[in-house]
User: Fold these one by one.
Assistant:
Number 1:
Amino acid sequence: MHAWPASEVPALPGKGRDLRIHDTATGGLVTLDPGPVARIYVCGITPYDATHMGHAATYNAFDLVQRVWLDTKRQVHYVQNVTDVDDPLLERATRDGKDWVELAEGETALFREDMTALRLLPPKHYIGAVEAIPGIVPLVERLRDMGAAYELEGDVYFSVESDTHFGEVSGLDTAAMKLLSAERGGDPERVGKKNPLDPMLWMAAREGEPSWDGGSLGRGRPGWHIECVAIALDHLGMGFDVQGGGSDLAFPHHEMGASHAQALTGEYPFAKAYVHAGMVGLDGAKMSKSKGNLVFVSQLRRDGVDPAAIRLALLAHHYRADWEWTDAVLAEAVERLGRWRAAVSRPDGPSAEALVEEIREALANDLDAPAALAAVDRWAAGQASAGGADEGAPGVVSRAVDALLGVAL
């Protein structure tokens, strides 16, 4: 599977700062020191509907992570998956009378278009669950053969008790885990499981549903968590720098994935930091496909909204915050974009060196994009009120906003 084209990232004078970011597993800020190549895995979409603002906010956050790393002169090895076979996708295809493959391909193509328009840097490896199945099957067989998994009526489950670190990603107690498991794709009430929290690794073929050759597992399809584990281990290995996604993935998805990988390899941790973006709401509820309360990036683009304004609307909120999408949020972003473009269109302005360092410091401090935007606002206000004698300043600001915030002025 191919990703989307990369926009050019301008080189800036000087060097950025190492990223301090909130780690869900420890509950506090950690300073990341990736070495010359930073490794990041971000969980991708289940492609049964277009890219909504919740998706865009999450991927915008991890685009900032990449940009901070690039500014420190590191290379970035970014991997993202596409869950192109799963129950929600199959259910939507049945509801709409569509072929599930056609639905997945169409929505994935639209997602690529949205990511391109928002100028989000693409992953080096963009892998679908279906194409990963040949690598998933051996992992499930290995877990079963080592006693970390077991069969139940043809399905194969992972035993969470096989990982002594289970629970350390989310920090939740058992009662909370059971509730979230039931809400987020698990089956804690199924009779015969060794532990109600045990997640499915391989689902035996069901009538009328797609299935693949699973070797000694029989025909079927992979569970949700093992998909990302197989892709991450293949392309990044253990101990990569950041596992990212929305806050609703901390449990069960990232918790289970970490345990799968740690049981498989005997190594710890799966990722050095678990980073989670907040939820975007609409009309008082989390924006979600199941509720249907969605604002789509593609629809805003069709309505003539500049993608740079959409991106500024996202950047106006701290990535870990839960926030509400409103018409006022977008209007403020459109107005800000206009002020910034007017400011950098002038031939000279206030010195930009201090501004570049302010943006760098804000982003290195747990991706504080609102503070970075406020810094640019102050420079633009100074430009409007007093101008300046630095002929190169507007160009420097334009390049810095592009390189560090992904906004083309």
Note: The domain at 20-286 is CATH 3.40.50.620 (Rossmann fold).
Number 2:
Amino acid sequence: MLMNTSVTCKHCKLNLSATQHAQTICCHGCGRIITVCKYQETWNQGKYVSDTKFYKDSLRQRFLENDCQGSSWSTSTVKYVQSETISSWEAPRGKRALLCGVVYSKQKFRLKGTFNDVNNMRHLLVEHFKFPSSSIHILTEGGTYFHPTKRNIQAGLKWLVKDCKAGDSLVFYFSGHGLRQPDFDNDELDGFDETICPLDFKTAGVILDNEINDTIVRPLKPGVRLHAIVDSCHSGTILDLSYIYSLKDKKWMNNYPPSNVYKGTSGGQAICFSACEDDQLAEDTSAFSGKQMSGAMTYTFIKAILENPDITYEGIMISMHTAIRQARATGCLLKRLFRRKILQEPLLSASENFDINSTINL
């Protein structure tokens, strides 16, 4: 029988569980690699390790002071065999979340902030919005997590809305690359489908906005609310929702597909915060924290909520726009974007228009 041993992270003091022969593990609290013992044999009968205790200091202090630094793990850091499948995940009533952070390890287009993004978003959900830790599943590279492959993300999306009922609050978060491609179904006003890029997108392909809409928007029943937070390039209408909020005009704008195909829910509500408009690029940067890499949208989204727990939907949008514009004005963000005069502008979309001045509640 394989025995587990308890390890305490010396950086964030989180209690971790590892097998007796594990050489290193990735701390779920701060992302650092923790040495356990000298490697003796391959771990070939691993178990999925769910964290049961979180960093005790306040989320506000932890995030704003940037105590968590980027991790340096790789997909080969921990050797394990997962003992469960995504299809076996329980679908709890109430609050439920799927968080995806794709690093694209060993690729030229590797992202440095996505692991931090997922970590910070999980802490926000647990400590601020009171999500049970057992109701949050993470797809990312390293540790004991399922990798964010196309197949795993598709399975995770199905789990997110499985057997949803009135009163359920669902969250889908994605931090990674996004692309766009020509629309052949005549359901995009700009003529392009938006996509998210799984870890294996070069071989397995991308996930289109049409599929995301079919999987997690269409099944939403009356009384069910979904919030999607997508930090990737070209993510403006990644859920193909029918309404887009214009901060400039202070009103909801129609985003109906030209083909008139139905893109709505089955009575529930879907709301999406996107990192940028469909023709824009999103930023992976340390400009806001000074040292920790993070998606610009993710960082400013979390910061807005921590600074004002009663913030409204419009308040979050204004706060994110202001922070990103100020970073651009001071030259903090990557210059390659601004040589093209492209400004990242977060976008809010919804399956139905609602009171933009209502307090956000995930």
Note: The helical segments are 59-64, 114-128, 150-161, 201-204, 209-217, 296-307, 313-329, 335-339.
Number 3:
Amino acid sequence: WINLSKWLVKQNMDVVTVNPHHVKRNKENRDNTQSKSDKKDALVIADMVKNGYYAFVRSTSESFEKLRVLMANRDVIVKRLVSSINQINRWVDVVFPELRQVFKDVSCKGAIATLRLFPTPAELCSLQPQDIVTGWKSCMKRHSGHKKARSLLVLAKRSIGTKQALDAYKLHLGQLLEEYDLASSQLERVTQEVTNVLEQIPFVNQILAIKGISEISLAGILGEAGDLSGFAHGNALLRHAGLHLAEASSGKWKGQIVLSKRGRSRLRRYLYLATMSLVMNNPEFKALHSNNVKVKKIKKMKSIMKLCGKLARVLVGIARNGSAYKPEMVFPLEQLAA
């Protein structure tokens, strides 16, 4: 539908979308049956459009579309990278579990260099500390030193790792390292491209000036939401993300108020991550969160969700007005007066 909608926009026609979930819920309104066919779907959609149950397609500039594509691609690359690291950890558990006593993180440069050059304890046992250091120097500018090389040799000689099928394990490790290298290089390229695209958007510098907002989280928000200046209010951004509240009640009974989650899931994730980063690093958001939890006795997660709304209003305000970030954007008037 994307290419069709772009063509219709070029023909100066209004383009709207109808939520498929709503179509499924409304299909019994016409004939009170759960039947489904192409003709019935068309009639249901026409009724919904007639009654105003639709959303306009928000056209975005090329920069925002680039961010959406790049961030979706980045999510796939990160999953592959994490998967390869997990499999390398499993390989180390089987073949050389003592490696973690020298390198706490198996994905650090020293551990990866060791796995490339001499992965099995049997290969290490035939070397001297100087040979290990020389190998590290060929892969790293800053190597781990003779002390760790000697520790590695001692652990290799009394390793409890498997001694069988080492050729197959080495082949498997080589393929895992190739996947790790490929995902790492692709992630660097995508990150650099995201940085280049962000430089083309006018209000990005004002938002990045907020302590705690990273380029990746902002790129994720802009990629999913598009031009923030097109939103009338921060609450519209929350509704777009599915972070607005929903309540079920009947008569005297009132159900629990929950997040609707009827919106873009990736936008929800990046708004949440950005808010968590602000709570940890930004003094204004940290103070608001502390006041919510300690003074107002609000649960921590509920406070984070409230601050997501605050962040959405700040972002939309900066995008619409082009103004710089100021602490009074975050604090209520009564707190500023105090």
Note: The mean pLDDT is 90.
